[in-house]
Structures are given as structure tokens and as C-alpha cells.
Design a protein that fits this description.
Order of helices and strands: EEEEEHEEH
Radius of gyration: 14 Å
CATH superfamily: Gamma-glutamyl cyclotransferase-like
Distance between the termini: 28 Å
Strand content: 25-35%
CATH topology: Hypothetical upf0131 protein ytfp
CATH class: Alpha Beta
Number of domains: 1
Shape: globular
Number of helices: 2
Length: 138
Amino acid sequence: MILLFTYGTLKSGFCNAHINTGERVPGRYRTRDRLPFYLMNDGHVPCVILQPGDGHPVMGELYRASPEALAAMDRLERIGEAGGYTRATVELERVNGKAPEFVTADIYVRLPADVQPGEQRSEWLSEYTLEHEVKFVW
């Protein structure tokens, strides 16, 4: 099993949740580092850029994913394809527990070199909500 942090359409209740067959870890989590998190281009695609120090801590959900579940999500996120995402490792903090709890997990990101200058972006986000998703288009 691999721990996977989701922050966008793979979260429970969102449009690609059916592809995420991982087991949800109870609690709310956020990245320990601030990361730039945008809605990208005309499709309002949620996207975290792996550039620690910029942006905000990103809120999301944590899952235990089997290799099969991870493979399905990797296909959705186009891992290894031009314009696709990269899977990286981040430190997370559970934010709704009595005592701080820290964990390391994988996350889907774009690398700074993969983001084109002038590529359309929203303001920085800290959390992807259902209000954002109504504008989402692949």
C-alpha cells in the first residue's frame, strides 16, 4: 500500500472519486510546506506546482492505495506523458487531531519546468472545493 494525498478531483465526492479506489485515512490533512496551487487553463484543472515555499499549505485527503488503485490514478493523471503530472513525495500534517500528526505521502504535481510561461492560472488556492469543481473541464 502507498499513501497518496489528494487535493482535487480525486477527493471523495468529486468527479474523479470513482477512479480513486484507495482506502481513505480518517482526518483532514495539509502539506507542511506552502505550495503553489492553482486552477489551470480554461478547464480550471486543479494543479499543485512542486515549488515549496510559494503559495499556501494545501488541504486534502489521505488514502492508502493498492498498486492497482495507484495505477488507475496514474493513468488519469497521465504520469510519464507530455503535459501530465509527476508523482512526488511531500510531508503532511493532520489538522483535526488533538496532537500534531505528521506523515509522508505521494502527491500528483507538475514540475516548475513543465509549466509554460504565461499559462493561464487562478490566484493561489489552499483548498479545492465543490464551487471550484463546477467550472472543471478536462
